[in-house]
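To: structure subgroup
Subject: Chain for Friday's discussion

All,

I'm putting the inputs and outputs inline so they're searchable in the archive.
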Amino acid sequence: MPKSLLLARTCHTDVNTTIMALNQFRTAVRGCRSSRALNVRLFSVSCQRSKILEVSTLPDRIVPHYQQTSTSSLLSLQWPRPPRNILLMPKLHAPKVTLSAVEFAKHVHINYPGLNLVFEAHVAQSIHENLPFPIYTTDPSDCTVQFAKKIDLVTTMGGDGTILRAASLFSTHNSVPPILSFSMGTLGFLGEWKFEEYKRAWRECYMSGCPVPVEDLVAPHTRAASTGGWQSQTAETDPQLLDWDSVRGNGKCMGLNRTSKILLRNRLRVGIYDSQGRNINEQLTPTSMAEPDLGTPPIAHSRISGGSDNSPLIHAINEIAIDRGSHPHLAIIDIYVNNHFLTEAVADGILISTPTGSTAYSLSAGGSIIHPLVKSLLITPISPRSLSFRPLVLPLHTKVTFKLSKRNRGRELPISIDGKRRIGVTIGMEVRVEGERLAKTDEGWTGGVPCVIRASSRGDSDGISEDDDSWVGGLNGLLKFNYPFGAGPGEEH
């Protein structure tokens, strides 16, 4: 065959191959565009920043230790290993907070290698395009189970409602990850940190209990601590210390004596029973469709007093509320304390609150303010008919039962748990409530919601001012406790 003809055929073959490759590329591009239009993620062709991965693929949760000290009523946070799976929860429908969440996510991803950032499904869909690394989420119907198995630490950015949203995701479980909260909402009485302090706050929480001796522990917190050659010596005797060495700069450890403080906030355990005595907690629905990740409560194999062994547990960090709803007549509710009849409440409604919830709905209804370290629960009537019906403070482990009186004329009254879940109750149904027990076991503390508390800079030898510093500051600065009429903050009486 002539060389000219062979060369022509070869060129023709190369051109056909090139055209086929271009056609395949165009088809792939069209497929990507179609998948985006259908809200379907093609991980095989998506760039790195577009990936949303399944949270079930992450390693299991690292459970921290909480240690008591002789000088404080608060607990000390001790991580056995660096936390890995972080649930980040920004305030919903707040673009500025979303931008702050992106800034925070990028900072911890760069400076703390090995972290996996997790978001609720609807948040992940709106934020992942702004992050140059994969993030994790799961289906809303499965998030309460998966988050309890996988999440090491929760970080909230918003107000008290965002903290309630975080606690509600774990309301069917006895163990809750620590919550680090940044106050970016309307009031933020429960929020401990300003967002401008996020680098310091995150570092203190993440490195809490890191078993590395350091010399430089004084602010600014970004100052490099002394390493003292620990990597070559201490790590040989304790391989777990190698985990901490992955932190960028290898100089952020604060030492065993510098730990974040933890306040275990009590919760209420509630069971709702129909006229046949069957627990119907699984019929609770989210109050707002803007929070679909709450889903419906799964069956938890723990016992509520008076229920069966398979009764699903629901916990509340703030309060349980029963009210008359849209009906014009007052609600009539019989109240029992430890199976003893207390009173027939005729009111707009009844609240039973934790000490944390005493500064929420209960406070607006005229209830007392209770320090969060006081193990108690509070019964507060909402606009009662009788002026002698005053709020009651009871021991935490008191068993309170609400029964709907037959005098309600067959009406259905709404009940809500932390304002996040709701159900209607009718005559013959009961609501049984008791305080959650905080117990110290061989595996650590169980029960309660562990909240990272800002340590006081002026603690005394007894640790009293350290325990109360942020709480007293919140009463004065946010709630304006006992401010005289006409006086502004800081003015003389």
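Points worth raising on Friday:
The chain has a mean pLDDT of 79.
The first helix runs from residue 3 to 37.

D.
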